[in-house]
């Protein structure tokens, strides 16, 4: 499903693109990606205590800037971001092409970045090996019928179903610009947004949400 062939780097209003990449990049590539970051992004990366977190942030932000530069037809390092109430990056007002929307998520070794034009978009990926208490989180954030259904499943199946639901809700919340407090919303019944799963390898769950009308979906893999 994920094409390794680059698109024409045009994003018509009727399309939504999702890029995926591996965060475990070579040292040379990481240095190139760091060179694309702004001073404040590099400073933020350097504040991470764990080297792993520092490298992942650097790789994710650099990988975000690459396709943004292609879509905007501007040098990636010259792109400027502003930040919304949830700390979510968006194009600064002075950046040409402000109608371009994007959202990023990374977990484990995978980063996903969704792009759309003139419509809100959200994406979420979760590594299933992440240590979580599914039952406790479901009771706190899911609807009662969802929690009850999860509790009836065998343990292995329960984890997959939990993350399937969680990623769909999280993608929708990100598209709506809402925080985790609102995760009881039902992606299956939202009249304004399309919510769909993204197919990844075993051990991951992912989902995409975007504002209607339905769009042509392009899935691209960074190689």
Describe this structure in words.
A hairpin with a 2-residue loop joins β4 and β5. The strands form 3 sheets. Strands 4-5-1-9 form a 4-stranded mixed beta sheet, with helices on one face. Strands 6-8-7 form a 3-stranded antiparallel beta sheet. It has a two-stranded antiparallel sheet with strand order 2-3. The protein has 6 helices and 9 strands; from the N terminus they run βαααβββββαααβββ. It has 223 residues and is of the alpha+beta class. It has one domain: Ribosomal Protein L22, Chain A (Alpha-Beta Complex), CATH 3.90.470.
Q: Secondary structure elements and their pairing?
A:
Elements: E1 15-22, H1 27-34, H2 39-46, H3 51-72, E2 81-83, E3 89-91, E4 100-107, E5 110-117, E6 121-127, H4 134-141, H5 144-151, H6 155-176, E7 193-197, E8 204-211, E9 216-221
Parallel strand pairs: 1-9
Antiparallel strand pairs: 1-5, 2-3, 4-5, 6-8, 7-8
